[in-house]
Write a structure and sequence with these properties.
Number of helices: 7
Distance between the termini: 97 Å
Number of domains: 1
Strand content: 15-25%
CATH class: Alpha Beta
CATH topology: Aminopeptidase
CATH superfamily: Zn-dependent exopeptidases
Oligomer: single chain
Radius of gyration: 31 Å
Number of strands: 10
Length: 284
C-alpha cells in the first residue's frame, strides 16, 4: 500500500525544517551584538552649584571687610579701599549664602545689605562711614588707621564663634582688602596667612592656587600664599585655624582698579573663593 502523498503545505514545512528557528536565533544574536556595540554612556557628573545644591550647608564664614568708618584705607581714582572691600564682602556673602553657608560680618554697616542676584543692577558704591564694631554690647566706631585694638576687635568675634562652634561645624575667617603700591605697573592680588604659623592653612593654599590659575595673582605675586604678621590673624586673638587675609587686587594699577569696580569681576572672585572653601572642606 503506497503512503499518502503529502499536501503542498506539509511538503513545504518538511523542506524548511528548523529553518525558521535558526533564523530567529541569528536575529536575536544580531540584536544582542548591536546592543553590545553601543557606546557606554559617560558617568553622571555633579550639577553646578546653585540654591538647590548647597554644598556649603552647615559652614560658618566670618567675613571681615577691611577699613570702614573713619578709616577709608588706600585711595585711587576717586575710589577708596573701604568702598571696594565692603561691596566685595556683600557680594561674597550673597554667593556663600546661595551655597548654604551662614555668613557673619565682623563689623556693622548699612553698606553690607544683601545684593540683587548676579547679573542684575546693583546700587552705586558707597563709603561705609557708618561702619562700627559691636563690643561689650555697645557699638564702637572704627578709628583712622586701624589701631591694633581695632584689629583685635575684628578677631574677637572670630574667637568667640570658634569657642562656641569648633566641635559643631567648620568655621572660616576671611579678611578682605585691596593693595596699593607706589608704582602703578604692578598688578594682581595676594593670599596672606599669619607668619607665626608653621605652615599656611589649607584655605590659603586653595585660594593661592585659584588666584594663580585665574590670573588674579598678576605677574609679581606668584602662586604661593605669603606669611605676614597681621593683627587680625594673630593666633593669640584669632584661633580659627582656617584664617586668611586676601589682597583681592592692586588698585594702584588702572586695570585692577577698573576690575574691582566691576560687579561681574566681583561675582567671579566670589565663585573662586567659594570653590576654595569647598576644596578646603575636602581636606578636613
Amino acid at each position: 500500500m503506497t503512503p499518502p502523498r503529502p499536501t503542498k503545505r506539509r511538503a513545504r514545512r518538511e523542506r524548511l525544517g528548523d529553518l525558521p528557528l535558526v533564523l530567529a536565533f541569528f536575529l536575536v544574536i544580531g540584536l544582542v551584538g548591536q546592543c553590545r556595540r553601543r557606546p557606554t554612556p559617560p558617568h553622571p557628573t555633579l550639577p553646578p552649584a546653585s540654591d538647590k545644591h548647597p554644598f556649603l550647608k552647615g559652614v560658618l564664614v566670618v567675613l571681615d571687610p577691611g577699613h570702614g568708618g573713619a578709616d577709608s584705607g588706600a585711595q585711587r581714582g576717586g575710589m577708596s579701599e573701604a568702598q571696594l572691600t565692603y561691596r566685595m564682602a556683600a557680594t561674597l556673602a550673597s554667593s556663600l549664602q546661595q551655597a548654604g553657608a551662614e555668613v557673619i560680618f565682623t563689623v556693622h554697616s548699612s553698606t553690607l545689605t544683601p545684593l540683587p542676584k548676579e547679573g542684575q543692577p546693583e546700587p552705586p558704591l558707597q563709603a561705609p562711614r557708618d561702619a562700627r564694631f559691636l563690643s561689650d554690647n555697645k557699638f564702637v566706631g572704627i578709628r583712622h588707621g586701624e589701631s591694633p585694638e581695632d584689629l583685635y576687635r575684628r578677631a574677637q568675634l572670630a574667637a568667640q564663634l570658634w569657642q562656641q562652634q569648633q566641635t559643631r561645624r567648620p568655621i572660616f575667617f576671611l579678611s578682605l582688602h585691596y593693595d596699593a603700591l607706589s608704582a602703578s605697573k604692578w598688578r594682581g592680588g595676594l593670599i596672606c596667612y599669619d607668619a607665626r604659623l608653621s605652615r599656611p592653612p589649607q584655605l590659603a593654599r586653595e585660594l593661592a592656587v585659584r588666584w594663580k590659575k585665574s590670573g588674579l595673582s598678576g605677574h609679581r605675586r606668584g602662586g604661593e600664599p605669603k606669611p605676614r604678621e597681621l593683627g587680625v590673624l594673630n593666633p593669640l586673638h584669632n584661633p580659627v585655624p582656617q584664617s586668611v587675609l586676601i589682597e583681592l587686587a592692586t588698585i594702584s594699577n588702572p586695570k585692577d582698579l577698573q576690575a574691582a569696580r566691576s560687579p561681574a569681576w566681583r561675582w567671579k572672585v566670589a565663585r573662586l573663593i567659594r570653590e576654595a572653601l569647598a576644596g578646603t572642606l575636602k581636606h578636613q
